[in-house]
Design brief:
Layout lengths: L1 E4 L5 E5 L11 E12 L15 E6 L9 E6 L7 E12 L4 E7 L8 E12 L2 E11 L3 E4 L2 E4 L5 E2 L2 E4 L13 E7 L4 E3 L4 E4 L3 E9 L2 E2 L3 E6 L4 E5 L5 E6 L12 E9 L6 E8 L3 E8 L2 E6 L7 E4 L9 E7 L3 E6 L2 E7 L12 E5 L15 E9 L22 E5 L10 E4 L5 E5 L10 E4 L3
Parallel strand pairs: 11-19
Antiparallel strand pairs: 1-9, 2-3, 3-6, 4-5, 4-7, 7-8, 8-9, 10-13, 12-16, 14-17, 15-16, 17-18, 17-19, 20-31, 20-35, 21-30, 21-34, 22-27, 22-31, 23-24, 23-30, 24-25, 25-26, 27-28, 28-29, 31-32, 33-34
Length: 451
């Protein structure tokens, strides 16, 4: 229990109107008024429950017949501290000596009990004067919730938990708390009522105080997120891939992952997210059919091998992944396994490459029937490991990092300005050219990411 003398809730009983001469027996002849000083808050609570939004007052044996006088008062919907005067609904007996107050988290005496007070008083003339006021605050510990924010998500309400001495939760609203930033001013800004706005990638520490009780520091992490996309709007849009030992292509081999985060805008025919050709006879593709997404690969002199995913939504983000571990091909969408196909050996033992691209492959003169994927691409990656196994995984919510297993990583969010040529992270050390490959090629645009 937390106890204070003359707590922030200052109680005073004042005689209103005419009354007696200070004798200690008999009822008063007029109602009394009562003042409560409500402390400042971090937020006005207009609709949400909050700590000490109402008080139930009981004057013990307060009326002329020796019964209690009980009534409830509500705090006004305002942020600043103020003194409010309330009229006691009945005349007060001069022999009354004790007053109790219960403070509640919601208006009208509802919600969790957040504090109690007891006051002893004496009668001197027209006033009731307090001998002492003792308040027991029910909030014993406060814990700020550590969390991760994404740089582009905008402002967010920080969260906390208030508990009593028995570790039971005391339900108070955000406006009951006052927040402060301990470190990380360049990473995060925090208002007094806990509205956090990310400023840059990094970590910050905060604390929160409720009814005079402060939390230990809590870490708020601001992480990278998608900020830009390549928008493929025309069937001739392309990003031509060049460089590396296979002229822009990758030897997928016996273990790989090909994956993309895309928001398709149309699916009325086969359209290409990624494709590569070699020797004019073998290729690998990652495409969207009208009813599913597809991965296809072949080896030299071998027939095409298709691996089918499932139906994808239009105008919504999907993470699509094509994984191979040397024995089984697994197709995933949005964190769920949608198909498996037994396979052995190398999917693509490439010896030489002619062209590779995101969208339409304009670098292969004899290929005329393919069309670019139409929609937004937030990320594309090829890896020399099977990154996803089992039935499910957490869907990526931020750009991938370039690591030791990354062959190709196209991330529009890392680029600046309006790119036309850019270096592509990964072991292959490729370059991307928007609208490259032929005079008929067109360029996808570099647009702001939209959830």
């Amino acid at each position: 229990m937390l106890r204070w003398l003359w707590f922030a809730f200052v109680l005073a009983l004042v005689l209103a109107g005419c009354g007696g001469s200070g004798r200690s027996n008999g009822p008063v002849t007029a109602n009394r008024t009562m003042q409560i000083t409500w402390p400042a808050r971090s937020r006005a609570a207009l609709t949400a429950p909050a700590s000490a939004l109402s008080a139930r007052i009981v004057i013990v044996a307060g009326d002329s017949t020796g019964h209690d006088i009980a009534f409830t008062v509500n705090r006004e919907a305002r942020i600043d501290g103020y003194v409010a005067t309330y009229t006691i609904p009945q005349p007060v007996n001069r022999t009354a000596r004790t007053l109790t107050v219960s403070f509640y988290a919601q208006a009208n005496g509802l919600g969790d009990l957040v504090a109690t007070a007891q006051a002893n008083f004496t009668s001197q003339g027209p006033n009731l004067n307090f001998v002492s006021v003792v308040v027991d605050g029910k909030v014993h510990t406060v814990t700020a919730t550590p969390q991760t924010m994404l740089l582009s998500q905008g402002a967010k309400q920080l969260e906390f938990t208030a508990s009593d001495a028995d570790s039971h939760t005391v339900a108070v609203s955000p406006g009951s708390a006052t927040w402060s930033l301990i470190s990380g001013e360049s990473v995060l800004s925090v208002s007094a009522d806990g509205i956090a706005t990310p400023l840059s990638v990094g970590t910050a520490t905060v604390k929160v105080t409720v009814d005079g009780v402060s939390s230990p520091p809590a870490t708020i992490t601001v992480d990278r997120t998608f900020t830009r996309v390549f928008r493929f709007a025309l069937p001739t849009d392309t990003i031509q891939l060049k460089g590396g030992d296979l002229n822009g292509a990758c030897n997928l081999g016996q273990r790989f992952t090909v994956e993309a985060i895309v928001k398709p805008a149309r699916a009325d025919s086969r359209t290409f997210i990624w494709q590569q050709w070699a020797n004019g006879s073998m290729d690998e593709i990652f495409v969207l059919d009208p009813d599913r997404f597809v991965g296809m690969g072949t080896g030299a002199g071998q027939p095409y091998r298709y691996y089918y995913g499932d139906q994808f939504p239009l105008h919504a983000w999907s993470h699509m992944a094509w994984c191979y571990d040397g024995q089984v091909v697994r197709m995933y969408r949005n964190g769920h396994l949608v198909s498996t196909t037994p396979a052995t050996g190398n999917i693509t033992p490439l010896a030489n490459a002619e062209a590779a691209a995101l969208g339409k492959n304009c670098g292969v003169p004899f290929v005329t029937q393919d069309f670019s994927f139409v929609g937004d691409l937030a990320a594309f990656r090829i890896s020399n490991v099977d990154r996803y196994t089992g039935e499910s995984y957490d869907v990526p919510t931020k750009p991938w990092e370039d690591d030791a297993s990354t062959l190709v990583l196209v991330d529009p969010s890392t680029l600046s300005g309006t790119p036309t040529n850019f270096s592509i992270p990964g072991i292959q050390h490729l370059n991307g050219t928007l609208g490259g490959g032929s005079s008929s090629a067109t360029s996808p645009t570099w647009e702001a990411y939209s959830p």
